[in-house]
Amino acid sequence: ASLLISDGATYDYGTVATGASLDKTFTVSNTGAFTASAIVNGGSLASPFAYKGGSYPGTGGNCGATLNAGASCTVVVTYSPAATGVQ
Q1: Nearest to 66, CA basis, from 31, 44, 42
Q2: 81 - beta bridge partners?
Q3: How many helices (H) and strands (E) are present in the chain, helices listed first?
Q4: Residue 86: CB partners within 8 Å, gap ≥ 6?
Q5: In the chain, which ranges are E strands?
Q6: For the whole model, what pTM was predicted?
Q7: Strand, helix or coil at 30?
Q8: CA 66 – CA 85 distance, rounded (Å)
Q9: 31: closest CA among 65, 66, 70, 58?
């Protein structure tokens, strides 16, 4: 499997006020020849990032435990800064 996440290796949420939040839907594509399984298990995200609604793949996302070769799915990540500055 070879996974590609939309928007490149990094994504800039821009300026978000402390105490506010902003959601972003990312597309995960398996560009490899094999099914991805252990990699597409959700894992956890470090604060101030979280899956929308609190669990993988985020409310509105449709990724599951596996991703077939040539397939794509989405995850929704919420950015909720609790402090000012670059994060």
Answers
A1: 42
A2: none
A3: 0, 4
A4: none
A5: 3-5, 22-30, 49-51, 72-79
A6: 0.88
A7: strand
A8: 36
A9: 70
Which residue is associated with the tokens 């402390």? 18
Q: What angle do CA 75, 24, 85 make, to 5 degrees?
A: 125
* DSSP summary character for residue 16: -
Rounded distance, CA 83 to CA 39, Å? 31
Say whether the peptide bond before residue 81 is cis (omega within 30 degrees of 0).
Answer: no
- Three-class DSSP category at 29: strand
Tens digit of pLDDT for each residue in 5-36? Answer: 998 888 999 999 999 999 999 999 999 999 99
Residue 33's region, left for phi above 0, alpha for psi from -120 to 50, else beta, is alpha
Q: Do 27 and 5 contact (CB within 8 A), yes or no?
A: yes
